[in-house]
């Protein structure tokens, strides 16, 4: 028996983009259904990045008591850029009057899910989406299979693909599974979580002859750190002592506080932007639409920026029948997406070391780093991009 559900906006994917969009739409009186293939437990426990732009935190404030970014998260007023054995602090408030918050993505997801369920949202886990039909009509449909293996059809006025980098919605919008601008990198990050006190108060982005390292935090007792590795690195191939050695040699000048390592993963680096972000009444947002390497900490923040634009466009379309904003959505979103792509690529290329780099390349890279940290204009560009460009308001 096929169950048919009717709603105004069908949202595929209960990640930050999908959940935030359903929240903003509900605030405007627009009903939606959110489906995700994963279980709630899987969604709430997947380890992802941790930096929120100030604008993202301000958007999350609208979750009221459910937002813990300011209480459980930590405000960071700067980062350290480390190279040639010296650290250089970039002070965000004095440069751009803004800050960022360290608050891991899975905590944001817990907040969003709690707020959506408290608001009576139709949020369904364990749903496999098989396809999206009739994108070119005013009644697009999501064709799915529910957690019990029964067919489920969601009829909507609009369908949003917020279903991540392996998006089912993307080929509907672009016409092919790979329809996009794409770049790969010859390195990856080896990430660890360790039970140890913080090694520094703020994040350290370190360029060293042995490659890049990022010293990040999670709490007073848990720390997150990464070091540049081969994309095919085997997480099991390193002893804990070897991992500390790899990390430590990439941050000369800082003594890392070591502890037991209880999680390890390899993050692959890709830059991707889909050729199209909307087809008729289907749009894609977040990782379904684009991927950035993690060096600029832009992934989740860019998803939030897409959602802010799409929310305004859907309100105009569904409440007033005004199509102008939805017609402009892709162009408006792309302006920020490509700035964030550039920033993420730039931070990546400036900080990592590649095996084929010549001595010239290496000296030029140090010159580039110096031209940023020794210049107020250079520091300001970095601070402006890192803390986030203004979000659309109306
Ligand atoms: C993290 O803490 O996981 C993190 C922070 C900054 C980045 C990437 C990851 O640029």
UniProtKB/TrEMBL annotation:
The keyword Cytoplasm does not apply. InterPro entries: FAD-bd (IPR002938), FAD/NAD-bd_sf (IPR036188), PheA/TfdB_FAD_monoxygenase (IPR050631). It comes from the Bacteria. The keyword Lyase does not apply. Gene3D superfamilies: D-Amino Acid Oxidase, subunit A, domain 2, FAD/NAD(P)-binding domain. NCBIfam families: PRK08243.1. This is 4-hydroxybenzoate 3-monooxygenase.
């Amino acid at each position: 028996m096929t169950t048919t559900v009717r709603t105004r906006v069908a949202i595929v994917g209960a990640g930050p983009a999908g959940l935030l969009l359903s929240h903003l739409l509900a605030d405007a009186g627009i009903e939606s259904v959110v489906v995700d293939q994963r279980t709630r437990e899987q969604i709430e426990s997947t380890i992802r990045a941790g930096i929120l732009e100030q604008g993202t935190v301000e958007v999350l404030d609208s979750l009221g008591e459910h937002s813990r970014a300011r209480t459980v998260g930590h405000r960071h007023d700067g980062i350290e850029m480390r190279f040639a054995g010296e650290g250089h602090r970039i002070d965000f408030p004095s440069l751009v009057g803004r800050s960022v918050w360290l608050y891991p993505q899975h905590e944001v997801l817990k907040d969003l899910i709690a707020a959506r369920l408290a608001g009576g949202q139709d949020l369904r886990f364990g749903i496999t989406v098989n396809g999206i039909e009739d994108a070119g009509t005013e009644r697009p449909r999501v064709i799915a299979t529910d957690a019990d293996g029964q067919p489920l059809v969601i009829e909507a006025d609009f369908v949003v693909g917020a279903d991540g980098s392996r998006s089912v919605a993307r080929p509907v919008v672009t016409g092919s599974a790979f329809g996009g601008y794409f770049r790969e990198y010859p390195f990856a990050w080896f990430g660890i979580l360790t039970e140890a006190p913080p090694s520094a108060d703020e994040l350290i982005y370190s360029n060293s002859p042995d490659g890049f390292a990022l010293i990040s935090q999670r709490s007073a007792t848990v720390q997150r750190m990464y070091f540049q590795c081969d994309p095919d690195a085997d997480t099991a191939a390193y002893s804990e002592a070897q991992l500390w050695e790899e990390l430590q040699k990439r941050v000369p000048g800082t003594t890392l506080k070591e502890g037991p390592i209880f999680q390890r993963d390899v993050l692959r680096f890709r830059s991707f932007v889909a050729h199209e972000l909307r087809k008729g009444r289907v749009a894609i947002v977040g990782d379904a639409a684009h991927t950035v390497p993690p060096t600029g900490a832009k992934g989740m923040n860019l998803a939030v920026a897409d959602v802010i634009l799409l929310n305004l466009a859907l309100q105009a379309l569904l409440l007033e029948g005004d199509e102008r904003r939805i017609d402009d959505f892709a162009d408006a979103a792309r302006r920020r997406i490509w700035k964030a792509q550039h920033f993420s690529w730039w931070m990546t290329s400036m900080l990592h070391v590649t095996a084929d780099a010549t001595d010239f390349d290496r000296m030029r890279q140090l010159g580039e780093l110096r031209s940023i940290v020794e210049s107020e204009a250079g520091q300001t560009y970095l601070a402006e991009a890192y803390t986030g460009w203004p979000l659309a308001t109306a």
